[in-house]
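Risk register update: the risk of archive-format incompatibility is retired. Evidence:
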Amino acid sequence: MGQLVYILGRSGTGKSYSMRNLDPEKFAVINVQGKWFPFKNASKIKYVVTDDSDSIVKNIKGLATTYDIIVVDDFQYVMANEFMRRAMERGYDKFTEIGRHAWDIANCVKDLPAETVVYVMCHTDTDQEGLERLKTIGKMLDEKIVMEGMSTIVLKTNVSDGKYTFLTQNNGKDTAKSPAGMFPSYAIDNDLKYVDDKIRSYYGFEGSKSETEMAEADAEAVREDPKTEKKTRRRHSVTESDTAEKSSVAEVDEPTEPEESAPPRRRRRALKKEADLERKEIADEIATDIPDGDEEEVSYEETEEPEVIRNLKRKSRSQEESADETVDQSEETPAPTRRRRRRV
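Archived output:
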């Protein structure tokens, strides 16, 4: 029984790129779209170009006699291309047939040799409930057959701050999953070679790497969890000249009388700052007049309130405007009355 592994992700997030480190002589690709792969030396890879489901099934079984690693890239276009070819057909029978053909490809893996791993690259889509899952055509595969349920390992690509990774576990809003303890972290390096080595070592396939070798590979493959990654703020270094300049400015600066032309709020803040300084000076004078041994702790709020703060009263904007202008009561005009329209 072969191993079926889904690699899910949106276009450009590293599905095909993850094959870059695989040995070209040890794996084969079923190239559904006939596109070039996004890495060097891709021409050395053994690949078959076809999007026909029957042909794909036959090629998977044939290639499994020679290769232990088979990649289907991209599975979604097997369904999409057939749908476009049959777009003029009426009725829902075509959706049933498209779903059956997709199921045939995934189902044929169980008939392969035990050490054969088939990686199926798939695009993703988000359903009405906000769940990110494998993209299909029609509702048959979504409602009757959950494609991800046919596999034990489903990895999802992720790009964060220019770093390409695989996510190995479910976050509650996708279908990613992997056996317990198979991978060392939630996010791992976007490297299908490492993933294949890890699967073979986990299940004890013949010729797999030892635990010591995999421990070294795990250390290199671990990536920071994109969910908990925090961005640090930049801190400007403070030199001695900066502190000296600030201290000299602090010694020169003294509270000044607020300008009359300043806005009311700014004027109130300036008066409040002046009152706080005056209150502190009063508290310091009281402290110096008390003989040693007779000290009593007095809170800042219990000190005598300065005169400037007693005169500081918060006024509304309308009160301040009325205080600045003198209005002759005799010349006041009556307030306009409201008229109501009678509904007909």
